[in-house]
Specification:
InterPro entries (chain A): CheY-like_superfamily, NreC/VraR/RcsB-like_REC, Sig_transdc_resp-reg_C-effctor, Sig_transdc_resp-reg_receiver, Tscrpt_reg_LuxR_C, WalR-like
Keywords (chain A): DNA-binding, Phosphoprotein, Transcription, Transcription regulation
Number of helices of chain A: 11
Helix content of chain B: 55-70%
Distance between the termini of chain B: 42 Å
Oligomer: heterodimer
Strand order of the largest sheet of chain B: 3-4-5-7-6
Strand content of chain A: 5-15%
Order of helices and strands of chain A: EHEHEHEHEHEHHHHHH
CATH class of the largest domain in chain A: Alpha Beta
Number of domains of chain A: 2
Strand content of chain B: 5-15%
Modified residues (4-aspartylphosphate) (chain A): 52
Shape of chain A: globular
Largest sheet of chain B: 5 strands, mixed
Radius of gyration of chain B: 34 Å
Number of domains of chain B: 4
CATH architecture of the largest domain in chain A: 3-Layer(aba) Sandwich
Pfam family, one (chain A): Response_reg
Domain Response regulatory (chain A): 2-122
Number of strands of chain B: 7
Order of helices and strands of chain B: HHEEHHHHHHHHEHEEHEEHH
Largest interface: A-B, 22 and 23 residues
Shape of chain B: elongated
Structural class of chain B: alpha+beta
Largest sheet of chain A: 6 strands, parallel
Radius of gyration of chain A: 17 Å
Helix content of chain A: 40-55%
Structural class of chain A: alpha/beta
Strand order of the largest sheet of chain A: 2-1-3-4-5-6
Chain lengths: 215, 499
């Protein structure tokens, strides 16, 4: 699987390259600035891009802008965005086109190599990977949302994991539930939130995120 | 005839202002008498009452100027002294003297406050001079009419009719202009001088600087403590854990692995703490996107349904953006916490060079800046930038808070206008018209002197002599008024560096 990587800190960049290579990815470009990134994304058309939000030359949201611009040129180009902090605003912008294949994680998540690589694979496959912190803040700002209050604590846990972009199987593993139990919970969640049920994992996640974003 | 109404209004106002000038003259004479009594005879007690009378008249004048000419005039007086406070033994100290009762120290304070304030003497000068300057300007139509009546009564009805007609026809254009001009002149003479304005501004800046320095020191102390107790301590622990793992690596790889896992968790926690700290110092989204998107991010994080409108031409300076951001953050948090609100509206826009943010919520209101430490904190933070917070929160809601930060965006320099040259011309010409051609010619005419010199009024045929002389005085007063008004306008156009 071909990856383009953008990260301006040398140490972290090398670490990520090593981690990805160790898991069988082919790192076709490892760049350190916004303009280089856009050129690499458009030129290489990788299977997935791992991008730091803050990049030279402006050290603002250069990386995010480049990723969004590349996705405008190549809709659905899978992009996993890394950042020292997460903002609902950025998550919303990444999800705005509704075509999936986006991830938004705190940089700390690379500490756990397995989970990080799993997130990269999920994004490359057109799924989503939202940081638990983003989901926590989404839920906190939806605290007064009527339908959410009707969920049971277990359903809430399932909702959180689902919003992060995990499949039924992954949720079951995490919460020690059988697949059918998870399926029952998700069906109940969709009914309570008034969303149309869907068998497609990715579409289901996008529907949940759209619901949470519609505050 | 609706079109005649403005004329009548202006005429009525002119008459009122002329009457006020006469009333002011009386007050000025009273004050002059009081000053003479005070300083020549030593009749000190009459002085404060006379000053109070003068201030009452000028205050009325300022109020009318604001209402009729639309020019707000600030009071130029220094703040009144606080009432004397007794010492612990119950006596009142005034310099090196002790008093049993506060009457005399209070009087001394008031005396100093009044006599040492230049505004007191400017009031006196204004009251005595007003009937001849802007008083004369507004009184002109009435004087022309009176002059016509005098001619008619004196047996020359044609002359009388000409003057009255002139007054009636001219008044339509003249009266509103005269009221406006009167206001501009009054604003210059009765408003605070540049010096007083600067003095007031310096004391305000001084207070703001002290607060800014204090709060900055407190902030740095808080950051130091947070780093010391949080991230720093955790890094020490991480280092120790890794060291222990290193030692165990050979003999007990299993335990070493567990320790390394712990170290990783601790580093994640340290990162989390630093992230929270950074958010409190300067939110990353503010640095990356500016105020507009930072406020949008706040709105997304708020449990309230928050609607944001942003209309900014460019980014303001970083410290200013930060002050505005934290103010909005605090206001939204207040609305959610205390106000029981469900919905909020944030509007970020410019007001000339000022940045204005309005936060409205549908909570139950009753917020009071005097009580809430949060609101006080916002005011303090804004104060360092001359910014202000206005909160309107009636019990039952809704609450509206307006933040205004002046000079957030670059000030465009005012272009040099022809007005300024015109103003200088007026400054040069007014004494010639008022004194030699007006007052001196009047004296010569009154004493019946045969000398005519270069006084125009004495060369024209008999019936026109008085009108020309009075006209010259009016012209002089008018030129002075225009000169003053132009100066004010130019100064305002240059940005009014002092507010």
């Amino acid at each position: 699987m071909r990856v383009v990587l953008a990260e301006d800190l040398h140490l972290l960049r090398e670490g990520l390259v090593a981690l990805l290579r160790a898991h069988g990815f082919e790192v076709v470009a490892a760049v350190e600035s916004g303009p280089e990134l856009l050129a690499a994304l458009v030129g290489e058309r990788p299977d997935v891009a791992v991008v730091d939000v803050r990049l030279p030359p402006t050290f603002t949201d250069e990386g995010l802008q480049a990723a969004l611009a590349a996705r405008r040129q190549a809709p659905g180009l899978p992009v996993l965005v890394l950042s020292q902090h997460v903002e609902q605003l950025y998550a919303r912008e990444l999800l705005a086109d509704g075509s999936g294949g986006v991830g938004y994680l705190l940089k700390d998540r690379v500490f756990n190599g397995e989970q990080f690589v799993d997130a990269v694979r999920r994004v490359a496959a057109g799924g989503t990977a939202m940081d638990p912190e983003v989901i926590a803040r989404l839920l906190a700002s939806n605290a007064r949302n009527e339908p959410l209050g009707r969920l049971t604590p277990r359903e809430r846990e399932v909702l959180e994991l689902m919003a992060e972009g995990r499949s039924n199987a992954a949720i079951g593993q995490r919460l020690f539930l059988s697949d059918s139990a998870v399926g029952k919970h998700t069906a109940s969640i969709f009914t309570k939130l008034g969303l149309a049920p869907s068998d497609d994992d990715n579409r289901r996640v996008l529907a949940v995120l759209a619901f949470l974003n519609s505050k | 005839m609706t079109s005649a109404r403005p004329t009548f209004t202006a005429l009525a106002r002119s008459a009122a202002l002329a009457g006020l000038a006469l009333l002011g003259l009386a007050a000025g004479l009273v004050m002059l008498a009081a000053v003479l009594l005070t300083f020549l005879v030593g009749l000190v007690p009459v002085f404060p009452s006379a000053v109070r009378l003068a201030r009452a008249v000028t205050r009325l004048q300022r109020g009318l100027t604001a209402r009729w000419s639309g020019i707000p005039v600030d009071e130029p007086y220094r703040p009144a002294p606080p009432p004397p406070v007794p010492q612990s033994d119950g006596w009142y100290r005034d310099g090196r003297t002790l008093y049993k009762r506060p009457t005399i120290p209070a009087f001394n304070q008031r005396w100093n406050w009044m006599t040492k304030d230049p505004a007191t003497w400017r009031d006196l000068a204004y009251l005595l001079a007003a009937p001849l300057t802007n008083g004369l300007v507004v009184a002109a139509p009435l004087l022309a009419t009176a002059y016509g009546v005098a001619w008619a009564a004196g047996g020359t009805p044609v002359m009388g009719a000409v003057w009255i007609l002139l007054a009636v026809i001219g008044v339509r254009w003249y009266a509103p202009w005269a009221v406006r001009l009167h206001g501009q002149v009054a604003a210059v003479l009765l408003g605070p001088t540049e010096k007083a304005r600067l003095a007031r501004r310096v004391s305000r800046l001084d207070a703001a600087r002290t607060e800014a320095v204090d709060s900055q020191a407190a902030e740095l102390r808080r950051i130091e403590r947070d780093l010391h107790d949080g991230a720093q301590a955790r890094l020490v622990a991480i280092g120790m854990t890794i060291g222990a793992a290193e030692q165990l690596l050979e003999n007990d790889p299993q335990a070493a692995r567990a320790l390394l896992g712990k170290a990783r968790e601790a580093s994640a926690t340290a990162l989390q703490e630093i992230r929270r700290l950074v958010r409190g110092i300067h939110p990353p989204v503010l640095a990356e996107r500016g105020l507009g998107d930072a406020v949008r991010a706040l709105a997304l994080d708020s449990p309230l349904r928050t609607h944001v409108t942003v209309d900014l031409p460019e980014r303001a300076t970083a410290p200013l953006e930060s002050a505005a951001y934290f103010a909005v953050s605090e206001l939204l948090a207040n609305a959610a916490r205390h106000g029981d609100a469900t919905e909020a509206w944030v509007d970020v826009s410019t007001q000339g060079p000022a940045l204005r943010v309005t936060v409205t919520d549908d909570g139950h209101g009753g917020a009071d800046p005097e009580q809430g430490t949060g609101l006080r904190g916002i005011e303090r933070r804004l104060g360092a930038f001359d910014g202000v917070l206005a909160v309107n929160s009636p019990v039952g809601g809704p609450t509206t808070a307006v933040i205004e930060l002046p000079r957030a965006f670059g000030v465009r320099p005012a272009p040099m206008t022809p007005w300024r040259y015109f103003g200088r011309l007026c400054w040069g010409l007014w004494p010639i018209a008022l004194f030699p051609q007006g007052l001196v010619a009047m004296v010569l005419k009154l004493v019946g002197s045969p000398v005519k010199s270069w006084f125009l009024g004495l060369y024209v045929p008999g019936p026109f002599q008085w009108p020309v002389i009075v006209g010259m005085m009016l012209l002089g007063g008018g030129l002075l008024a225009v000169a003053l008004a132009t100066t004010v306008r130019t100064r305002e156009a240059e940005g009014g560096a002092c507010g």
